[in-house]
Every structure is written in C-alpha cells, then in structure tokens.
C-alpha cells in the first residue's frame, strides 16, 4: 500500500510527488502517456529538423521561485528585455524593459497611464503571489492583503474592459493590455462575469513580478527537472498507465500498455487530470520553425527586438471586439487576433548547431478567440480555415508573407504544426481543449467552507485535486501540486 497515488504525471503531479517523497511518503505516479510532464514538454515535431519546440505551453510566469528553491530544481528561466511589440501601419508600439524613454515615446499619450496601471498591477502581484502557496483567505482577507482599494475595485470588482477603456486613450494600447485577459479564455472583457478579470490577474501576478520568462532548453527542461527531483526523493513513476477509476475509499484502477488492468491502494489519492466539466478552450496554437525572421514594415525596430517579446497581431481593442463577435456567432474571425514569440532568440539551445548557424528560429503563434465550438462540425476544414485566416492576419502586419520564411523539412514539407481546442480535447484529453482545464477561479475562498483550506479538497476526504482544475490552478505553476502536498502533510 502506498501513502499517496497521484493520477497523472503532468507538472503539478511531479511537484506534489517531489514534496511528498522528500517528506518520507511512499508515492506512486501513474501517467497514461509514455512520458511524464503532461503538456509542459518539448519535442522535435518536424522529422529531420533538429529543433525542440515547446509544443503546448511555452513560457513560465506562475511557477514560484519558492518551489524551485524547495525542490532544488536545476532549471534556468531567462527574462526577456522586450516585453512586447505591436505593429501598426508602418510603425508600432515597443515595450522595452531596459529603455523607459523608448517605451514612453512608443506609448505616446498613454505613457503615464501605462506606468500607473502597471505600477498598480505590480503592487497587487507582490501582495497576492505569496498567498497562492498558503491556505485560502476569504474575500475580505485577500482584499486586506492587497491593501489598495483602487486596485481591488479595478481588478476584482469592475469589468477589466471598462477599466482599460477609462484608463487608456489609444485603441492599440487598450488591446495590448486586454490580451492578458483573453489568453485561452473566450469572453468579452466588458462582461459582468469578470472571467476576463480572473484571466488577467493570473497573467500579471506570477511569482510576484508578472514576468513571463523563457525556460532554457524548452518547457521540457522544467518538467524534466521536476521529474528528476521526484525520482531522487524516492517517488515511483510508471508511464503507459491509464487510470480508469478512482474509488474514494483509496483504490485506483489502471490499465497498462498491454491492456491488463491493475489496482493499487493508498491513504491519499491526488488527481492530476482534467475533471469531467463543461469547458471551452479558445485558442489556436501554431508551432513553426523559420529559416529566418520575417521583415517588418517598421524601420525603427529590428525583427530580433520585435519577436524576442510578445509580437501582437491585430490585437487592438476594436479588432479584439470584432473577433469576439464573429466567433460568438459561430464564424472564424475575419481578421483573427494572435500573438507570436520566438523562443530561440532568448534561448538558442533549442536549435541544433547547423540551424543556429543558418539563422533559423522557432516561432510560436497563439491565436485568440478561436473557441472549440468553431471546430465541432468539421474539425479538419475549420482548422484549415482558421489557419488560413490567421496566417493572412499575420501577413497583414509584416513586410513579407510568413510562409516565405518557413523552414522546409528534408521531405519538403513546411515546418508548421497546428492545434485547435478540439485537437487538444481529442489528443490529450482536455475538456473542450481548455488549457486551464476549466474557467479560472478567484484566488480566494468564495465559499465560507473553503476558508483556511488549500483549494484542492473534494467531497471525498481521501481524494484531492492537484492539477489545473484546483482553485488557484491553471498555467505552468506547480501551485496546485504544492498545495495538495501541503494538505496531505498537514493532515498527518
């Protein structure tokens, strides 16, 4: 009998396994795939091309440095000098973290509003981030921790779309700010549900800074380090094992790669798998390898600067709104908003020596307002339509077609891979292809019974959540894994 069985070997399960094994618990991790790491992995997806792509998740913000220190992880997360670039006509908006004057000149009349808004967001990040690794506070308790009534009102109580419209004058600047409220989330930022606010909050509070860092070696280096830490502490990991059932009494039934069924018992069962919930993801993920970076229309910004951060594509406030209207009506947006970033500019180690010498680069594109509903009837045709529209949208802000820059594999095929929400649902089991497993929750107890708990508890005392579906879940954070481990250890 094990002390803990963890169903699912994604990054949160590995975090929980490492903490629990280090505390002397006997831990078994069961993973359906032939590798651990879940969706936070790297792969050479184009045959004959020596480039490792972070296939699903690609940047790290929410992973607390405390978890890295606690588990002794040998992982390097590099900051990005350029936060973002947004092309507009023959110019653009560049956010340069090391040159405030250049950023201010780019923002023009919104420079002061930008400083005030992100100064406020930074204060909230520093105060809220530490609470994510603590038992849940109630709403009043988190409000007290924030200690800023203006920030609480604008980020937790009013629609973020209304706040941004009031604070900023320019359509482009408004859109740049609002993209953080829409990543992987299908909603109107002005909606009273405040779903966009929750999404925004998780995108700006990571590790107390909100910085989105590049994992050196690709996302697989992060989960590889977590797996090494768990194994070194004594956790047992079995891949190719599909969990079939979890009995609240403490039994887990699973099937091995040969089809044989097995059962194991444990005092605790940690579920690191998506729950069976109604969810709808809303993104188009395109992985590419380029022979070279594309040329820009803006002569004042080099491609190496523009693509080192987040490259915004048709993400002005009005364009975001029109794309949402199109998708809500069941149509692929006519001019899809999207953003791209080049991992290899910050971390060339993901490319083989020959590709580096030739000037090749990886490019990740993440399309917004692409809900699963668009891909239900005819997934292949809808995928093709969404890709065509998204590449055309990309081309509309470049000085040359992006397809002219794609590297060709040895067999002549372009190095381009597309994943829709329905693809994620079918291939990796995400409900509705939702990258957060379900809509994000507030990082405080919304029910009085949750206060003082860890946000991982279920109706069954011996069964805990330890994945993205837990409160304070979503993203590559390790937070639910940490909190599930703390719940187990606190129970004795």
Describe the overall structure.
With 492 residues, the chain is α/β, with parallel strands linked by helices. The chain folds into two domains: 2-76 and 215-278 and 436-491, FAD/NAD(P)-binding domain; 81-211 and 280-431. The protein has 17 helices and 18 strands. It has helices spanning 11-22, 65-70, 100-107, 111-128, 139-146, 149-157, 160-167, 171-178, 195-204, 219-233, 303-306, 317-328, 343-346, 353-358, 379-395, 421-428, 479-491, and strands spanning 2-7, 27-30, 42-43, 53-54, 77-78, 82-88, 91-96, 214-215, 236-238, 242-247, 251-255, 261-271, 282-290, 310-313, 338-341, 361-371, 416-419, 463-465. Strands 1, 2, 9, 10, 11, 12 and 18 form a seven-stranded mixed β-sheet that branches. Helix 1 (11-22) packs parallel to helix 17 (479-491). The longest helix has 18 residues, at 111-128. The two termini are 17 Å apart. The mean pLDDT is 96.
């Amino acid at each position: 009998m094990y002390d803990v069985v963890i169903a699912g070997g994604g990054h949160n399960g590995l975090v929980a396994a490492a903490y629990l094994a280090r505390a002397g618990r006997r831990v078994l991790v069961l993973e359906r795939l032939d590798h651990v790491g879940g969706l936070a992995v790297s792969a050479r997806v184009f045959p004959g091309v020596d480039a490792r792509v972070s296939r699903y998740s690609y940047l790290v913000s929410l992973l607390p440095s405390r978890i890295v220190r606690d588990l002794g992880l040998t992982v390097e997360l590099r900051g990005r000098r350029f936060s973002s670039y947004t092309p507009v006509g023959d110019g653009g908006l560049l956010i340069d973290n090391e040159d405030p004057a250049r950023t201010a000149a780019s923002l023009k009349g919104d420079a002061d509003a930008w400083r005030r808004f992100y100064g406020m967001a930074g204060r909230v990040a520093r105060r809220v981030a530490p609470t994510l690794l603590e038992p849940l506070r109630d709403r009043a308790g988190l409000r007290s921790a924030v200690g800023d009534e203006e920030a609480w009102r604008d980020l937790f109580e009013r629609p973020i779309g209304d706040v941004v419209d009031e604070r900023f004058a320019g359509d482009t600047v408004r859109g740049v700010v609002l993209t953080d409220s829409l990543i992987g989330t299908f909603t109107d930022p002005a909606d009273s549900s405040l779903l966009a606010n929750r999404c925004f909050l998780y995108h700006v509070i990571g590790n107390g800074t909100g910085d989105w860092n590049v994992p050196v070696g690709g996302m697989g280096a992060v989960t590889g380090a977590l797996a090494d830490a768990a194994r070194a502490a004594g956790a047992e990991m079995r891949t190719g094992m599909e969990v079939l059932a979890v009995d609240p009494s403490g039994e887990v039934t699973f099937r091995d790669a040969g089809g044989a069924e097995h059962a194991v018992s444990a005092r605790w069962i940690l579920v690191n798998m998506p729950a069976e919930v109604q969810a709808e993801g809303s993104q188009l993920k395109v992985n590419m390898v380029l022979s070279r970076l594309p040329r820009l229309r803006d002569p004042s910004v080099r491609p190496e600067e523009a693509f080192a951060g987040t490259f915004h594509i048709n993400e002005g406030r009005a364009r975001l709104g029109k794309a949402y209207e199109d998708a809500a009506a069941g149509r692929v947006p006519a001019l899809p908003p999207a953003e791209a970033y080049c991992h290899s500019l910050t971390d060339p180690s993901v490319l083989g020596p020959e590709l580096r010498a030739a000037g090749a680069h990886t490019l990740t594109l993440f399309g917004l307002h692409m809900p699963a509903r668009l891909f239900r009837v005819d997934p292949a045709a809808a995928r093709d339509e969404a890709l065509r529209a998204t590449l055309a949208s990309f081309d509309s802000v470049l000085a040359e077609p992006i397809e002219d820059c794609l590297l060709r594999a040895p067999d002549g095929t372009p190095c381009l891979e597309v994943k829709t929400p329905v693809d994620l649902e079918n291939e990796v089991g995400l409900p509705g292809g939702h990258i957060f497993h379900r809509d994000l929750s507030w990082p405080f107890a919304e029910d009085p019974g949750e206060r003082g708990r860890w946000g991982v508890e279920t109706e069954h005392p011996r069964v805990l959540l330890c994945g993205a579906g837990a409160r304070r879940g979503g993203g590559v954070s390790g937070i639910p894994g940490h909190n599930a481990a703390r719940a187990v250890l606190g129970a004795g």
